Amino acid sequence: MDTDREGVRGVRGVREVRGVRGVRRACPPKPEGRRRARGTAGIAAVLLATAVVGAGCRKSDSPPGSGEPRSAAAVAAGEAAGGAVSPAGPGNGSTASAAGAAADAAAAAPPVRAGCAGAAAKRIPEAADPAGGTFTLEDAVEGLADEGSGLAARLETTAAVLRCVLDAEGAPATVANFVGLARGLRPWWDPCRGEWVREPMYDGMPFHKLEPGFAVQTGCPIGDGTGGPGYAIADELGPGRVHDEPGVLSMANVGAGTAGSQFFVTLGPAPALDRRFTAFGRCGPADELGKLDEAARGGREVRVVRVTIERTDGAGGER
Hints:
Layout: E1 3-4, E2 7-8, H1 39-47, H2 72-81, H3 93-108, H4 137-140, E3 150-157, E4 161-166, H5 172-183, E5 188-190, E6 195-197, E7 209-211, E8 215-218, E9 248-251, E10 263-266, E11 279-284, H6 286-297, E12 304-312
Antiparallel strand pairs: 1-2, 3-4, 3-12, 4-11, 5-6, 7-8, 8-10, 9-10, 9-11
Helix pairs in contact: 2-3
C-alpha cells in the first residue's frame, strides 16, 4: 500500500515504472503515526498523507541487503554439520543424525528472496505476458487435490503461521491470481532476472511493511514495495469486501485496476480501506495474528517461509 492524496496505495503493474527515481516507495498508511489522529477526520487525514521514495518509512521496511541470504534452516545445517562438532563415530550417532536432519531441512526450505532494490533495471516486462492477461480459477487449481469445494491458504512466516480462508465466490479473479502466484502456475515477471517465470512467487519473500495495529504487507519481488508481477488485475469491490477486523486478507494497489501481487493482512479494523482494496480472505487464528503484531511492534524482520494452497469443506472453514 502507498499513501498519497488519492488514498492508500500499493503494488504496481506495467505502468508503475518511470525509472528508479520516479518510483514511489509503497508506504502503508500510519493510523498510529507520530501525531495521533483523533476521530474519523483525523484518521482520514493520516490516510491521505503523501509518501515518496526516501520518505520516513520504518527501519524494518528497508530493502534487503545485497549479501547472499541464508535461511534459518541453512544456518542450522551449517552449525550442525561444522563448527565444534566432532567427527561421527561411536557415541556420535545422534550428532550425525542431527546434522543429516538439518541438512535435509535446509534442502527442503524455500530460498530467501533478497530482492534487487536499487538495481532493478528491468521493471517493465520486455516480452508479452505468457498468460495473455488471462488466468482463471480453473487454471489456478489445476492439479490440486479435489477434496472440498472451498480454498484456503496456509501462510507460514518467520513470526507466525496463518490459515486464510479464501473467498473464491466473492472475488474469483483475485483468488485465482493469488493462488496461481502462490503455486507457481501464474507466470510473473521477475525484475531481478528480467524474464517471465513460473515458480512460487511468495516463498522466501520479505514483508516490506509492518505497521503495528494496522497491517503487514508483502508480495514485492524487488523487496522494497515498489515492484509487481508485470501485469495488473481488476478490482473486485462490493459491500462484502470490508476490512472490519484483524486478519482480513486484501490486495494492495496504487489506484483502481492496478493490483498485482502485493497483498496485506490487517492487524486491526481498517474501515478507511473499504471500497478501495479487494478483500479476498480472512486469516487466523487470533493468537498468530498477535505474534505478527508483536513482531511489527518490535521492528523485527519477517519473511514468508511458504504459502500452501489447500481445499476446504465448503466456502468457509476454521481459521
